[in-house]
Amino acid sequence: MSRPSALELPGNVSARRLETARGSFAVLDGAPDPQVPYRGAALLVPGFTGSKEDFLDLLAPLTAAGFRVVAVDGRGQHESGGPRSEAAYAQAELAADVTAQGAAVAEEYATGRLHVLGHSLGGHIVRAAVLADGPEPWASLTLMSSGPAAVTEAQQVRTRMAVDFLPTTDMETAWQVMRSMDAENAADGAVSAAPAWLDEFLHRRWVSTVPEQLIATARQLMTEPDRVGELATVPLPKLVLSGEVDYAWPVPWLDEMAVRLGARRVVVKGAEHSPNAERPAETAAALVAFWTSVTEE
């Protein structure tokens, strides 16, 4: 999961609700720097176990470059809430939410230059939205650390925990089990402990996420078909961005996907599955370069 470097909001960022035709969603809304030319807007969609805070470190550099940036909690994630039914989190439902969010942002900010980015699972969701509802209102599509189909078999082992245990285990107990596993990995040097403020946030986010959302999306990660050929036919500029290492979708898979899509490809040095949090300055620079090239065409 992405780990922001801080939770304090920049002065130009507000936490609010985005009202859409499919309900109300919690968002972080970053206003563009009024001292630079306005370049458009972007909707940022988080991945499995994630939330809008995954993009906190990107908001300052992206808004400083002249973009309005809206990071969203999807249905059932963190502060958006959602029903206790797996059917509510079918990929088609989540994709329709993204389309509605995009329409609401486009209407509110009167922009025809609205970019969409999906991180990890979020990439599959925005892909499904574009395939179901077409390229409008998007100016471009970015798939960040999001692969062509299901995650690797090794990654499915941990993902399957949500499917196997959450139906009969409360979220607090599941959190404690994951903490124990992480502590064992830390003892082996595999992971580093989070500072207290971050651990508290990750815990709060986990227990406030609807378990049925995690179960349904875990199934999606393990069964997603390859839809790259379909997406390649959609007339949108595309960017495939990742770190140098990815445990969910190996980097060679992402390289090949970019070729099949005819997409721009960026590999962020020093980053792994969450370049948004691990190398935010470099990631923001790549996004600004791509979005600017699209809007200036």
Summarize the structure.
This protein has helices spanning 56-64, 91-109, 121-133, 153-165, 171-187, 196-208, 211-223, 228-232, 251-261, 275-278, 280-295; strands at residues 13-20, 23-30, 40-45, 67-72, 114-119, 138-144, 238-243, 264-268.
Low-pLDDT segments: none
What is the N-to-C succession of helices and strands? Answer: EEEHEHEHEHHHHHEHEHH
Sheet of most strands = 8 strands, mixed
Radius of gyration: 18 Å
* Count of β-strands: 8
Q: In what order do the strands lie side by side in the largest sheet?
A: 1-2-4-3-5-6-7-8
Number of domains: 1
Please give the count of helices: 11
Give me the CATH architecture, please: 3-Layer(aba) Sandwich
Quote the distance from N terminus to C terminus: 35 Å
CATH class: Alpha Beta
Class inferred from helices and paired strands:
alpha/beta
Averaging pLDDT over every residue, what do you get?
94
Strand content: 15-25%
Assign an overall shape.
globular
